[in-house]
Design goal:
Length: 694
């Protein structure tokens, strides 16, 4: 292998008798791509997985797959399941796809037990190690439970064994048993759930692990030696008095190894945090809490946070390969492999953002890897049982539409605006062989991205990296940049494009009472204009720091608008010690609209803690000088005094720009906010789809 920089990452490996061509594992990640009515692997799932596999990953672990259905799944009806022999032939097609690319394939076996993070399960009396009433459950994301009898224990263990056998018959190379997070197997391992008084009870570690160890040894005994069994387990838990401490979690992992597990993937769980510890990087949103899980590495904004679990497991004497995920990238992963901390690098989000990542590492083209924002939009849609999608990669779940196929005829394409829609449209059009001219009225690329990065405290570097990534791609693809140039009818006349893609962004909305001249009001448009010149000289991260010293808005601020824009503005100001009140004429449902469910779950209590007041469904009476009079939803008259009123309303379609360019070329497409203001994911997809139509 000529690539010495990633010598360890690109080295072949093995899990049991399964050989991998490199040390990169695509970890399990729910996608909702299964055929919901039948549970069959259909075209959608095959296309989706083929796209993720073809980029060169060393091992694919297919998403969590129920061993019992629907009771054992938390995403019915869109969750994979292998509870019935009838499913085997369709699953064989999936393993065949992986093997076509010389990629071994495992599937993660799960029984959700009491866990209900989606809130979509209605089943009462969920299976669990013990009976737990509502008040005894470790949070709202659980169903009341009923203790399994010994017969039931044996029956569910058999379900795991049967599902593994079906996976084997379907050509899979192994299974990953999910005994982590809050699954049914974890309800035995963790004393948070386990109150039993038999051989599966919490009195010894052996008894706690017995549910798993018996499954593992039975699978190993029953299936061919070539078939691997990996496990993913909580090395430590937090947020509950009975949570598993690291010393116990390590011993449980060793017992799983002793039972025959061929590899161990480390995970932790935090009761009370909806995401547990799957994505430690999101602990930084909106601010790092005081009660951080102590055993993790918090030095790198959550990147590689779980690596100390792996080190501890090595020190405890594990001999089978250890896998860790959590925001690892090729560089960090290589280092961890080199240091002997892990044997395989687990990744999910970076591979969704760019399935070609392994190939680009092999070819030493790190600058071509599309950065993942870490935004968890993918998880958010999954939690709603929708098809998984990625904010930056519109090809996910559109594999047969976003093909980057060469265009039949080369055309001159004028792209107007360099926000997410324009950037992606220009890139895709150029890949397809067109001659592309990208116009941006400011001197820097990105549209509202740098401003969004400035307002956010998370994803700042990632968003900046995304714009840089486009810059690099444009250079390589020969996209002609026309920066600092306002595209207008005269430019069109001069350029004579065959195609115009208008991605000029939306219009900043003004509240109805904005005609009041004497009001100290800052509109989102003003804010954009004021900050944009600074972004020429400072990165969003630096500018964000500078605004902590200088921000001429006074002490008290009223933010008008409560959707994502309003919430982010309020968060930004609160972090700069401003006294913030949010108001909106829209009702309570609008609060936080556009944010992920997880972010809302974290932000709203934070607002409460910081004293941010919020009034939804208000009627604004008048705004004079520094006083706003309104009637609240419950009919109270209220006067809010502020030094500044900031509007942060959703953008409006840009009808002016649409009129300007309508009919000015043989093909004209309007995409992104100028047509229908929405979020980055939709804008990027719209840009890509328009560029595929040319
Ligand atoms: C949309 C989504 C779905 C996921 N589904 C699963 C799952 O089914 N089983 C599981 O063990 N982990 C699941 N994960 C967690 C990933 O396997 C991985 O541990 C996590 O994303 C951290 O790795 P990363 O930072 O490389 O994304 C999911 C993650 C995402 C983003
Ligand atoms: S949706 Fe966001 S977090 Fe998920 S893979 Fe895409 S960029 Fe990364």
């Amino acid at each position: 292998m000529s690539n010495t920089r990633f010598k360890f990452l690109l080295e072949p490996g093995s899990i049991g008798r399964v050989k991998t061509k490199n040390r990169l594992i695509k970890t399990a990640q729910g996608s909702s791509v299964i055929e919901p009515d039948t549970g069959f692997v259909g075209e959608r799932a095959l296309n989706y997985y083929e796209n993720l596999i073809q980029g060169g990953v060393g091992l694919m672990i297919v998403e969590s797959c129920g061993v019992e259905y629907p009771l054992g799944t938390h995403h019915p009806p869109v969750q994979f399941r292998l509870h019935d022999d009838v499913l085997i032939p369709s699953f064989s097609k999936l393993s065949a796809v992986a093997h076509k690319y010389d990629c071994p394939i495992f599937i993660q076996l799960i029984h959700s037990g009491p866990w209900n993070p989606t809130g979509l399960r209605t089943a009462a009396n969920a299976r669990c190690s013990s009976t737990l009433k509502k008040a005894e459950l470790p949070g709202p994301d659980f169903l009341e439970t009923r203790a399994m009898t010994l017969d039931e224990v044996a029956m569910v263990q058999q379900m795991f064994i049967n599902a593994a056998e079906r996976a084997c018959k379907a050509g899979f190379d192994g299974v990953e048993i999910n005994t982590a997070t809050c699954t049914l197997p974890n309800s035995f391992c963790s004393r948070v759930f386990n109150r039993r008084q038999d051989q599966y009870g919490p009195d010894t570690l052996e008894n706690r692990a017995r549910f798993d160890t018996e499954i593992i040894s039975a699978i190993k005994k029953k299936l061919p030696a070539e078939f691997a069994v990996s496990v993913i387990t909580n090395i430590a838990e937090y947020g509950h008095p009975l949570a598993t401490p690291i010393e116990e979690g390590l011993q449980i992992a060793l017992l799983l190894e002793k039972a025959g597990a061929d590899a161990v993937q480390v995970r932790g769980h935090y009761y009370g945090h909806r995401d547990g510890l799957m994505h430690p990087d999101r602990f930084y949103y909106p601010e790092l809490p005081d009660n951080l899980p102590k055993d993790l590495d918090w030095s790198n904004r959550g990147q590689g946070a779980l690596l100390p679990y792996a080190s501890a497991l090595k020190k405890a004497g594990i001999t089978v390969p250890v896998i860790a995920a959590a925001r690892l990238d090729p560089v960090l992963g290589e280092q961890a492999l080199r240091d002997g901390v892990i044997d395989f690098v687990g990744m999910t989000r970076r591979l969704l953002a760019d399935p070609e990542l392994p190939r680009k590492v092999i070819e030493n083209r790190l600058e071509d890897i599309r950065p993942c924002l870490g935004c968890l939009h993918c998880m958010d849609v999954r939690l709603q049982n929708k098809y998984v999608e990625c904010r930056v990669n519109p090809q996910i779940n559109r594999e047969k539409v976003v093909t980057y196929s060469r265009a039949a005829m080369k055309k001159k394409v004028m792209v107007i605006g360099s926000g997410p829609a324009g950037l992606e449209a220009a890139r895709v059009a150029a890949i397809r062989g067109h001659e592309v001219y990208l116009y941006e009225k400011y001197t820097g690329l990105g549209g509202l991205i740098p401003l969004a990065a400035l307002l956010k405290d998370v994803e700042v570097n990632e968003m900046t990296d995304l714009v840089k990534w486009f810059e690099v791609q444009f250079k390589k693809l020969g996209v002609n940049l026309r920066l600092g140039r306002q595209a207008d009818a005269a430019e069109v006349e001069q350029l004579k494009p065959d195609v115009i893609i208008v991605a000029a962004g939306g219009q900043h909305a003004l509240p109805a009472f904005s005609d009041s001249q004497k009001v100290k009001m800052l509109t989102s448009g003003d804010l954009h204009k004021r900050l944009k010149p600074f972004l020429k000289f400072f990165s969003p991260r630096t500018l964000a720091k500078l605004t902590k010293i200088w921000l001429p808005v006074g002490k008290k601020v009223v933010v008008i608008g409560s959707r994502i824009h309003g919430c982010e503005t309020a968060e930004f100001l609160t972090k700069r010690h401003r006294q913030v009140t949010i108001i909106d004429t829209a009702g309570p449902d609008a609060f936080g609209e556009g944010m992920t469910g997880d972010d809302k779950y974290l932000l709203f209590p934070w607002f409460n803690k910081k004293g941010v007041k919020n009034y939804q469904g208000v009627k604004i009476e008048k705004l004079v000088e520094n006083k706003l009079t309104l009637t609240t939803q419950d009919g109270q008259k209220l006067t809010l005094k502020a030094d500044t009123f900031i509007t942060a309303l959703p953008l409006l379609p840009n009808t002016t720009v649409m009129e300007t360019f309508k009919g000015k070329a043989a093909e004209v497409y309007f995409v992104g906010d100028c047509l229908e203001p929405r979020l980055i994911a939709q804008a990027t997809a719209a840009g890509s789809l328009a560029a595929h139509q040319i």
